[in-house]
Specification:
This is Large-conductance mechanosensitive channel. It is a multi-pass membrane protein. Channel that opens in response to stretch forces in the membrane lipid bilayer. May participate in the regulation of osmotic pressure changes within the cell. Keywords: Cell membrane, Ion channel, Ion transport, Membrane, Transmembrane, Transmembrane helix, Transport. The protein is mainly alpha-helical. The protein is 72% helix and 6% strand. Helix 2 packs across helix 3. The mean pLDDT is 82.
């Protein structure tokens, strides 16, 4: 039983998952800070976001009481989700995609062409070709 547990822990998947959770928590803190410090104040310029929490719809229950549907909180959560999604896409995903595209473009660049042979090398190649041709043209005894 302990051997199986040890193999489970030693496998790379568990370590990768643990690292992903820790990085995800740190990433969440960054995104939440951007939303709270930048996006929410921008939204507050347009309308008062605090007023959303007070938007409720009261419905009478079967037992004579009332229950409240907090649809303002739902709208606030949707706005918050969209704000987080915008930050994640434009601050993190889009720049990473551009970086990957540039890296892929750099890898696809053709290698530098071989340098041109010098004049002496060209003359040697011509001499060798002529001597080969001359030996092919001459009759063999």
């Amino acid at each position: 039983m302990i051997k199986g547990f040890r193999e489970f822990i030693v496998r790379g998947n568990v370590i990768d998952l643990a690292v992903a959770v820790v990085i995800g928590a740190a990433f969440t803190a960054i995104v939440n800070a951007i939303v709270a410090g930048l996006i929410n104040p921008l939204i507050a310029l347009i309308f008062q976001a605090d007023s959303l929490n007070s938007l409720t719809f009261d419905v009478p229950t079967l037992f004579g009481g009332t229950t409240s549907f907090a649809w303002g909180s739902i709208i606030g959560a949707i706005i918050n989700f969209v704000a987080v999604a915008v930050v994640v896409y434009f601050v993190f995903v889009m720049p990473m995609n551009k970086m990957k595209e540039r890296a892929a473009a750099r890898e696809d660049l053709p290698e530098e062409p071989e340098p041109m042979p010098s004049e002496a090398e060209l003359l040697i190649q011509i001499r060798d070709l002529l001597s080969d041709k001359k030996s092919q043209d001459s009759p063999t005894p």
